[in-house]
Amino acid sequence: MDPHISHFTKKRVLITGGLGFIGSHLARKLAMLGADVTLVDSLIPEYGGHLFNIQDFREQVAINISDVRDPYSLRHLIQGQDFVFNLAGQTSHLDSMTDPLTDLRINAEAQLSILEVCRAVNPQVRLVFASTRQLYGRPQYLPVDEKHPIEPIDINGIHKLAGEFYHTLYSRVYGMRATVLRLTNTYGPGMRVKDARQTFLGIWVRQLIEGSPIKVYGDGRQIRDFNYVADVVDAFLAVSQLEETVGEVYNLGGKERVTLIDLADLMIKLNGSGQRQLITFPPERKAIDIGDYYSDFQKISRAIDWQPRVSLEEGLSLTLQYFRSNGRHYWEN
Fold it and tell me: Is 268 helix (H, G, I), strand (E, B) or coil?
């Protein structure tokens, strides 16, 4: 029996960004566990929401097409919920630099608005907020733990940090029951592959399947870690069940650390064909590149016994298989 089942059966759950990559996987798992799930998504094309992400369980969830920047719709949606998994956000680091005010309104102002609505109409709701490793900036040491200095190198990191701090402040001052997860390179079926707005790995998948060279910036020796989406979903569900995690911030991270060249070679091997190409960093990307990064996730492992279970090879195989079958839904729409 799934260890989460008794906790979520017949519970009311709201997922912001629920038609996006991680939100839809979380929704699928919660629907399987018998939760009453509502998905909120703006379906703005640049932000990753996609109806095909839920095509296999569409009848098991409610969908509300609205924007987290609208406090009036949020007030109605948040009332009566047992859980809010807050995944809505603008994820493109490059877009945050070219359109910083939109990033501010989605990743900071809207997050404050969500918390204010919760405080007004549902102060006991259990909240989990999706943050990012980007707020650490360029690592001063590796692996990066939660005590690492916070020095964002792009607008997105600054605004995600603000959203994160709102959640922890409201826990500390108002008694709100919020937990923050700092995600790193989440990948899997349904991730954005139309462009590199969510993760470079998505556009690599598309390039590989379409027969184009995988384009690797710089010398390709940058080190990264990765989390398969099922492991990330397990972390969201697990932290939401324990009161000891309220007010806490946790890194997620992968057990396997790999250079981008080795990652590209592994993907080519798993695909059975393909090639990679080293290209010069565009100046606008080089300015916000973080270099080597991998996480220390011992804190969450101690708190909830979380460990990534899906190997990089297994996760990439599942991802490539999914997009070979369904890719046209993602890069044609």
Answer: helix
Q: Residue for token digits 């080293």?
A: 278
CA-wise closest residue to 200 among 232, 224, 231, 228: 224
166 pLDDT more than 50: yes
Q: How far apart are CA 292 and CA 223, in angstroms?
A: 5
In angstroms, the CA 93 to CA 285 distance is 9
pLDDT in tens, 286-295: 877 888 999 9
Is the separation of the CB atoms in 254 and 308 below 8 Å? yes
**What's the CATH class of domain 5-187+228-254+294-310?**
alpha beta
- The continuous run of DSSP H or E covering 58 comes out as none
Rounded to two decimals, the pTM is 0.95
How are the residues of the chain apportioned to helix, strand and coil, as percentages rounded to the nearest 5? 45, 15, 35
DSSP 182: E
Which residues are 183's β-sheet partners?
132
Residue 234: what residue type? D
In 116-213, beta strands by DSSP E: 126-132, 177-183, 186-187
